[in-house]
Amino acid sequence: MKNISELLISEIKVPNMDLNVSYVFNITNPQHKSGFAILFIDPDTYNDEVNGGPSIYEGLALFGTIFNRNGNTTLDLVLLQNQIDHEITYKSLKNMSDYSLDANQNISIRINLTFINNSVTLYVSNDSTVEHLEEIGDLSITVNLTGTVMLITTANRKYDTQIDLLNVDFEIGDPFYALYMRKRYDQILQDGILDDINATFRSKKLNKTVTELHTKFQDNSTEKSIFDIFDIFEELSSASEDMAKYRDVAKLFSGRVAPSVAKVHKRTSKIYDRMNNLTKIMTYALNYTQNIMQSFNNTMMQNKIKFNKSINVLEKELEIDTEEIPKSQFKMQNYFMFAAVFELICLFLFFLISLCRMPKHT
């Protein structure tokens, strides 16, 4: 999951019985305000606000958020229930952490949520192994989870953090609670105390099985008919089918969803790399174009200065020519007047000579 936010929705509604759900996450390159959310809410009320999940909801939510405090990076887990009366923000999550894990390097974490008798217990293993699961705390469930479904969301603010959901396991029959009850039964047999025994089974279908579990301590000599045995086998088979449905969801996540998410992540990475290269090319082209325009602008400014100088020189030359033109015109006028007078004198002399040469008539 490497996009800004992603969402996985289970089609199985949360059963009205005890339940244990185990998640395994890998977080690569943890960054500030990235994280995930495990939600048990009505999917119709979903919106993308905090860790890819809603900020206001009705139901139960576990927020896993990465924070950077004074150069130290941690993964903070907060288990909250809400009745649409309180808004969840990054600031509020930062101030009410139930568990903090060092996130200065890549993280592999296993989270167990165990629902027993209207309460939920949070177990965490910081190396994703079952052996190192540590109980963090429990919470009494006051909200109505009937009809809700499980959602898993992620948020990745800078495309740098990769959050991989490796596995999801659903169990009807909590191993921790069952271990506690087995120890309690051993103590009862040892001390001979016959008080009320609570069933260790999550399925509500195991009626005769629970009855047999209660009565076997009181009267071991009571013989059961073959029909009672068949009824117990039928109840166990039906309960196993219910448990198989949850295992099918785990197989769906591990067999289909996880490879599809990996392919989408790979394609997204390629697209991101190509977009990054394209951005670099466009930046280089814009810078190169800016340099060309700057050079063109400088050239035009130099040409303008040269042109202004040429105009000034031409104006000065024209002013000089304008002052010399009247003097040259006066000289030419004198030349023309002298030529005209000379021509008149010549004509007059020619007329006189002509008169003198004319013959006289008697």
UniProtKB/TrEMBL annotation:
Keywords: Membrane, Transmembrane, Transmembrane helix. The keyword Transmembrane applies. The chain crosses the membrane at residues 335-356. Gene3D superfamilies: 2.60.120.200. This is L-type lectin-like domain-containing protein. It comes from Trichomonas vaginalis (strain ATCC PRA-98 / G3).
